[in-house]
Task: structure prediction
Amino acid sequence: MGNVVSSSAKLAPISFASTLISLLTFPTTLLTLLKVVWQDLSTIRAADYEITDYLGNVKQSLYEEKAHLRLIRRRHRGQFDEGAFFVLANSVRHMIRDFKALEDPFLDHPRDYYDREGKYDLDKADPDDYYDTNYRSLGLQQRILWLRRKGRVVEIESRLARLQTRRVAKQLADLAVDHHYLCRKVQDLEDLIEGMSDKRSSTTGMRR
Result:
C-alpha cells in the first residue's frame, strides 16, 4: 500500500506538468488554427482579383522567358554552350504545361485558340493575348478550387524566378569569358602591330 502511494506521489508532479503544458499550448494551437482559417477565407473572398493578378503575371513571365530563351538559343546555335540553354528552355516548357492545367478551369475561353483536344493553347494565340486573358465569373466552387491551386501557382512562380537567376548567371559568365577572349585578341593584335613596327624601324635603320 505504501509503495502505491509513493508511486502516485512521484507521478503527480509529472501529470501536473503535462496538464499545465497542454493548457499553455492550447491557446497557441487555437490561434494558429484560426489564422489558417482566416487566411483561407480571405483567399476565397479575394479570388476574383487574385486569379487575374497571379495567373496573368505568371503567364506573362513564362511566355516572355520562353521567347527570350528561344532568341538566346538562336544566337548560340552550334556553340558549345547551346545545350545549357536548351535545358532551361525545356524546364520552361514543362512549367507552361503545368500552368495551363492549373489555369484552364478559370478561363472564359472567349477566343478560338484550342488544340486538337479542345484545350486552351496559347502557343496558337496572338502574343497580345498573353497580356489580356479573360477569366470566367467565379462561383463558390471556383473560389474553393483557387484556394487549392493557389499554392501550386506560387510554386511555379518561384521555380521560374530561380530559373531566371540561373539564366542571368549563365549569361554573365558567358559575357565574362567573351570579354576575356576579346581582351586577349586585342592584346595579341597590339603585340603584332608593335612587332611589325619594330621590324620596320629596324629595316629602315639598316638601309640608312
Notes: The chain has four helices and no strands. The longest helix spans residues 140-207. Confidence is low (pLDDT under 50) at residues 1-5. Residues 163 and 204 are 61 Å apart (CA to CA).
